[in-house]
Structure formats: C-alpha cells, structure tokens
Amino acid sequence: MSKRINLGFRFFKEKNGSALLMVLLILSGMLIVSLMAAGLVSSSLKLGRNQGYSTRALFAAETGAERALAVARDTVSGFDYASCNTSGQCVDFDNRRCGNCTSLVYHLADNSSYKVVYSSSTDIVLTSNGEYSGLKRAVQISFRPGVFSHTCSSTGAEICNDLLDNDCNGYIDCSDAAGCASNPLCLAPG
User: Fold this and answer.
1) Is the Cβ–Cβ distance between 147 and 139 less than 8 Å?
2) Can you give the pTM of this predicted structure?
3) Alpha-carbon separation of residue 72 from 48, 104, 144, 147 (angstroms)
4) Range of the domain at 166
5) Which of 120, 122, 139, 186 has the most CB atoms around it within 10 Å of its CB?
6) 55 and 128, same structural domain?
7) Three-state DSSP class for residue 174
8) pLDDT tens, 63-122?
C-alpha cells in the first residue's frame, strides 16, 4: 500500500482562486525583474552614447589646440597676439588675430565644434573648448610669447622627412606640395 505524501498544497485545494493569485504574484515578480533589467540596459546604452559624444568633443578641442599651435608656429604669417588685448577673446584663425567669441566657433564635418579662448599672463594660455551634442571638453595649452618665432634660414630644397621647413615657405615635409608632391614618402598608398 502506497502512502500519499502531503506537500502542503492542501491550502490551495480547498480555496477557490488561489492558483490564480499565485500565478499573478509570479507574473508580477517577473515583470518587476524585467523592468529593472530594461532600466539597466537603457542606462548602459545612454552611458555608452555619452562616452562617444564626450570623445568627439575632446577630439574637437584637441583639433582647436593643434590648430592654435600650428598658427603659433607659422613662420610666414604668424599670429598677431597684440590684438588679444583682453582675456576671454577668441582666436580668429582666418584673420590671425583675436576677436569676438560669439562669431568664432569652428564647425567640423562630424557636427562637433570648437573655439579657442585666449587668456594672457606671462605665458600665452589658449583654452580650446570642444563641443558635440551638448557635451563639452576643454584642452589648455600655454607657451611663452616668441618661443615659436624664429627666422628661417633656407637650406635649399625641402627634405621630405626631417620635420623642418628647409625652403622657408611655411610648409613642412609632405605638407609642402611644391617641394615634396612627387616624393614617394608623401604619395598616398595604392
């Protein structure tokens, strides 16, 4: 003779609708867990997107800093730092002087932008502010006035791999189209 094992389900056998209540409790628990998981995934996606935006803003700021350094190093036309009479003015790369910050925002192909703000002390301090989709990043550079100004002594034709402006035309190595356009070091692969 077999004995029946009582697992404590007698409560549910005697009450009508208790199974329905148990199913509803289990389903609501699953719903809560699912909503929590969806919230975590959503916040992770937002963080990832913001990281990408932040990186683009940083690259835009670095572009402005590199452009400011290139203009400061330019041995041909240079930059008129005397036009930067007050801190907080922006660098006007086209006119090689300082100007109003509202009109001196430079836009890049990926819809990011930058502006370079001048502040004066014993050193020239330039802060490049990059922005992409509302996220902002800044890069600051400083140097002493005149540190890049030097007279160029031509050594003849441009040497295309020495990082110098040998022919004193303001262009270095492969950027010097007149001197290095046909040099194998400067030709695009393919």
Assistant:
1) no
2) 0.57
3) 36, 17, 11, 9
4) 151-190
5) 139
6) yes
7) helix
8) 999 988 888 777 556 677 777 777 778 888 888 788 888 778 999 999 999 999 888 766
